[in-house]
Amino acid sequence: MGTAFTPHAGITARFPELKPALTPQAAMVEANRCLNCFDAPCTAACPTHIDVPRFIKKIATGNIAGSARSILEANVLAGSCARVCPVEVLCEGSCVMHHRAEKPIMIGRLQRYAMDNFYGRGLQIPVRERPELPLRVACIGGGPASLACAAELRQAGVQVTVFDKRDLAGGLNTYGVAEYKQRVSESLREVEAIQSMGVEILQREIGLEDFEALEQEFDAIFLGVGLGEMHRLRIPGGEAGVMDALDLIAGYKTGEILSIGRTVAVIGCGNTAIDAAVASKRLGADEVHIVYRRGPEEMSAFGFEYEHALQEGVKFLWWRQPIALEAGTLLCAATAINEAGELVVGEMRTELAAEVVVPAIGQSPLAEWLSSVKGIQFAKGRVVVDRATGATSHAKYFAGGDCVNGGREVVDAVADGKRAARGITAALGVMEVAHG
Amino acid sequence: MASLKTTFAGIECINPFWLASAPPTNCGEQVMRAFDAGWGGAVWKTIGEPITNVSSRYSSVDWAGQRMMGLNNIELISDRPIEINLAEIAEVKRRYPKHVVIASLMVESRRDVWHEMVKRAEDAGSDGLELNFGCPHGMSERGMGSAVGQVPEYAQMITEWVKEVARTPVLVKLTPNITDIRVVARAAKQGGADALSAINTINSITGIDLDTFTPRPNVDGKSSHGGYCGPAVKPIALNMVQSVMADPASVLPMSAIGGIGTWRDAAEFLLVGAGTVQVCTAVMHYGYRIVEDMIDGLSQWMDEKGFASLDDFRGLSLPRVTEWKHLNLNYKIVAQIDESLCIGCDLCHIACWDGAHQCIHTDRVTGPVDGHVEVHRKPMEAVHATMSSIAVTRIPKMDPPAVSHGHYKAPLARIPRVDETECVGCNLCSLVCPVEDCITMKEVPGGLAPETWEERTAKLGIVEQC
Ligand SMILES: Cc1cc2nc3c(=O)[nH]c(=O)nc-3n(C[C@H](O)[C@H](O)[C@H](O)COP(=O)(O)OP(=O)(O)OC[C@H]3O[C@@H](n4cnc5c(N)ncnc54)[C@H](O)[C@@H]3O)c2cc1C
Ligand SMILES: Cc1cc2nc3c(=O)[nH]c(=O)nc-3n(C[C@H](O)[C@H](O)[C@H](O)COP(=O)(O)O)c2cc1C
Ligand code: SF4
Ligand code: SF4
Ligand code: SF4
Fold this sequence. Notes:
The complex is a heterodimer. Chain A has helices at 9-14, 24-33, 41-45, 52-60, 64-74, 78-84, 107-120, 144-155, 172-175, 184-195, 211-217, 245-253, 271-282, 303-312, 367-371, 402-405, 410-427; strands at residues 136-140, 159-164, 200-203, 220-223, 263-267, 287-291, 315-317, 320-326, 329-337, 343-353, 356-359, 378-379, 382-383, 397-399. Chain A is of the alpha/beta class. A five-stranded parallel β-sheet of chain A has the order 3-2-1-4-14, with helices on both faces. Chain A has a four-stranded parallel β-sheet with strand order 7-6-5-11, covered by helices on one side. The mean pLDDT of chain A is 94. By secondary structure, chain B is α/β, with parallel strands linked by helices. Chain B has 14 helices and 18 strands. In chain B, the strands form five sheets. Chain B has an eight-stranded parallel beta barrel with strand order 3-4-7-8-9-10-13-14, surrounded by eight helices. A four-stranded antiparallel β-sheet of chain B has the order 5-6-12-11, with no helix packed on it. In chain B, α6 (181-190) links the parallel β9 and β10. The mean pLDDT of chain B is 93. One iron/sulfur cluster (SF4) binds next to α11 of chain B.
């Protein structure tokens, strides 16, 4: 499975890091600001429960490698998480500093400082002392959920094979996360670190016909397939000039898309829409609009993502719904909420110049694929699991990540993967090895 | 505004702020700039046979991102010729007649050599002499500095020699590198000293370079013990000055030194009886300009307290330091947490559990707030509960907004409570709490009359053991 990739210089230049690395002095000062809370709320707020005060104090004492190891114990994709996590609503959002009217500790950037130092020095993810077990687990999908599950299984001595259908491993960490948050090469660096723990990664699409053979070959199967295609924009005007947000993002990240039209309309107002809109700006569009059929208070994007888009010059068109597309013009209808609380389309029409229209109205679940795995309960587009163990209703199958939670964040996928690995080892009767 | 004028051992001072004998008083040009900045006096960098210094010669202890909490040096006395130092003293005194210049001296332990040096210093116009019996490094190997300051007989003898010829007040500068600083203070007094100054630097090794294994400061791969000073030594200096000033056999006018950097430090030393204060490290860190706030802050504080002169409060704290056996055993305080200020860091909880008496709890389960808590969760149980809990990223539309904490800043579950029936009133929690005034110690009337250890043992007929 490939991790070979050459970044495109033009893209790298257009997407400089939003939150650059901390210098050693700055990291030291920031680390010393942390109060070292007991049973710290930041740790509780992190889905993978990274022991935040522990790793921060290690930075303060100059034990950077130890700091990184403490982080990795809880979260094997800590390098990505440091960059892509919405820390504002997670660890940093719960830092006690808020209560004393001070800036929260820059936990994300300190974590990145430790992880950059770790990988920069060529250190390896420590593997626990344990016997190699004659157990084999397949992880389908090569995104954060599967990678975390695979790493945790390796820590228990289990043999793991990861299957992914794409050229590069890492899932949306590689193909979906905005480039100014995390570069493709940084995602791949982490994939390699996990491979070096002894995880086998194969580039292969698992089809409906493969399940039987997999069940024969493996003792357990983890489903970390994420979500499927983006929802289509079903309006008259055809497909010309329409590019879905995921294709746009994956395209520019891999250097295949280097420019976009002058005017762009992004449909939807989630975090993906924001990423697509900002990327369009950086790819050279003059006018980028986000068209949303409701008001700002209902958008699903995080507040800080919205603020960021405003700074980048993205414009927002609220209470509008696209109804037709013709020759570079998007026809939108005004929307409103009626007395019954339903969204209705009004009479008013607006025309919006849009050489390119980018729907970002959510990903559909891999419903057909998932529901064909016999014995797995599937509801509201998600695989139903036991949250603490990732166990599905089929004894051999476990699941986690976007396909289970409907699409949250990388760190949630990692937490799911880790829990599922522990669920799998427990189900396979592997003795629990002491760990953090 | 209150007056900072004072008279120290007969020397008129426009204010009590002097520079200690050290690099800030190396030369005339520096001392004059210091006087321009507002310093009332300067103890000249110790004069003696010129010596050669090594490089490097300073190292420091940094703490939690703050630079130079403690400073260490292996510097010796002045490396400039005696004649030049004395000529510059004369020049400074000519230009600044109202400012105090004290010559700090250290020479070979011979009577004629001391006589000669004292005369020359006084002829140059110095207002007083400070005998450096403290330098812990370099000079002591040659029978000077702390080699004198650590032996009461020598200290007394040299003080006597100096007093035989001195016309100006003689200050003896004490070394802290001794078990009981009062012993040498008494010897100096016996020898006829007019005043004391304390403390000089404390023997120390600030740290060792973990790459080269050489202690700091590094002189070509080797190091030596050096003198420690700066903010870190203030508590030690305060104790030593207090113990000398409380000892009738030692007490003399005292020029206090050690970790003084602000008017607050100065006020504290004046409260234990100091007449003037000397500053070195703080000036090495920030320059002469710090004296502006020292003057301004001290007189502002004096105005607020209604003190018109330094004599109005000098020594006021001395009678409040006593021996342990005179403390009231029946005085009882307990910790109280102001729930509206608490930020929920739970540092008090873990400090009390691991470092005190296990009476701060994070589970608010049973009993009244001021009552005994029967059921409580041990600290590690709290941590394990967190580690096994399932947390997810909050997504605006899907997850309910964070619950409001009412009039509390922190979630109630994170605000600890004190079991007042178990609290021993040690203060620890209030010391670790990062929020000002959040944990206060409240007096709990026990209904018993004050009683000291001495009284109690006398009543019980116990003979004191130690
Ligand atoms: C545009 C975008 C931006 C995002 N930005 C952020 C962000 O900034 N921060 C953040 O925390 N989260 C972000 N997320 C969310 C985050 O990327 C996901 O929550 C996370 O990647 C989910 O991990 P996963 O392993 O469940 O799925 P994925 O990352 O989607 O990985 C699933 C993998 O399975 C493979 N696969 C699927 N079917 C098969 C099959 N049949 N056979 C073999 N392989 C298969 C896919 O190729 C893919 O590699 C973003 C999501 C998107 C869409
Ligand atoms: C670099 C340096 C050199 C010093 N040289 C002398 C000296 O020559 N004579 C002396 O009596 N004290 C000397 N001292 C001690 C200071 O005068 C002072 O007693 C000590 O530093 C404590 O005060 P502080 O905490 O304000 O620095 C020196 C101190 C330092 C840091
Ligand atoms: S809540 Fe903030 S201050 Fe407390 S441990 Fe976490 S980062 Fe440090
Ligand atoms: S004063 Fe001491 S014993 Fe009392 S609660 Fe605080 S730490 Fe515990
Ligand atoms: S140390 Fe202070 S702020 Fe922290 S939990 Fe205790 S009382 Fe609250």
